[in-house]
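As a warm-up, study this chain.
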Amino acid sequence: MNIPETGLPRIVVIGGGFAGISFIKQLRKQKVQIVLFDRHNYHTFQPLLYQVSTAGLEPDSIAYPLRKIFRRNIDFHFRLAEVENINTENNTIETSIGSLKYDYLVLATGTRTNFFGNESIAENSMPMKTVPQALNIRSLILQNIEKADITPDEVERKRLLNFVIAGAGPTGVELAGALAEFRKGILENDYPSLDEDEMHVHLIEGQDRVLPPMSEKVSKKAQHFLEKLGVQVHLKTLISDFDGETVTTKDGKKFHTATFIWAAGVTGAPVKGINGEALVEKANRYSVDQFNKVNGFENIYALGDIALMKSEKYPKGHPQVAQPAIQQGENLGKNFKKILKGDKLEPFKYFDKGTMATVGRNKAVVDIGKMHFGGAFAWFLWMFVHLWFLVGFRNRVITFFNWTYSYINYDRAARLIIRPYKKKSPSLHKEEEAAVSSSVEA
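Now compare it with the structure written out below.
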């Protein structure tokens, strides 16, 4: 692999997500060599992936080139590759483009979709963890509506216009709300031969309320917003099967659909080579100490979703969302400066800035400490926070313009079938999931 030997400590980072980029940014002026590996050449702002899948934004609004982010870093190198194995004895990683030695290794590989071992769902449903997957969902949604517009078969039209989402966490709730608004704002104007009432959006959740990680107060408010938009919410309902045409639940319900989106959970995306006591298999996360050092290793660290740092307040580790990843990356970056100087390290302390989710136009819910509220103010707060954390000034401007345009015109300008979706064979689907798990940060 063509990485120059400089004599400086070499830090290899796997994953260009929130944790990886916040860590590398801290070392911008340090005398170290940083090598970043990712299977994409861009960082994805995953909280807004659902807007790409529902034609609210184009993918380049939420993606940003990794090389551009770090162009000011001294001795920074990016390699587009998949990391296949870690040889901890020789301090070497093996990738799809060759092997490389490291002095320090930072794992920021994030999560992959968790199908809970259900092969039929894994093969036939639509996950949404990457930009290509979000574009697949967008294409499938639009293709199915186009087919419904011309089919004379009422049963088939009903199936094509029946949208089912599994999982009522923030992703599922936001997807359901966006689809419901698509029905109200687009269907009537673009497809006059289709009746708005023919399009149905179902949100299925195994627990007894939507947004289980958030407070009960905002959970009830979010469900009220969803139902007001026409989303049919099914609680305490577990999905047992999806054969490509029918979603079947454990209590016998059946949903005939051509679009089934799986947003019901994630699991860690570990890299081969680090196992044993370091890997907590049930969670697929690396057990780390308060400095994010992987247990059993002196020069390997894990950040964000892949790191399991237990504490009294977080006995199951920190939530697998952006803020813990960003804060862990910043803290480890500052600690590396101390490592280089031989100073005492600072343990990680998570500052919970709150949780929020949007349901639709003027409809969002927010938990900040003991404050729980929803409505228009929460929606504007949600927009401000997401704009603030987007990477790149251009992306902020474009996203803000798109949101303003959509707010004024009740429109979704990105409803283009650029890459028609064609169902892959099960083997290809599994290969794609495996590839995503090797180097994607959530």
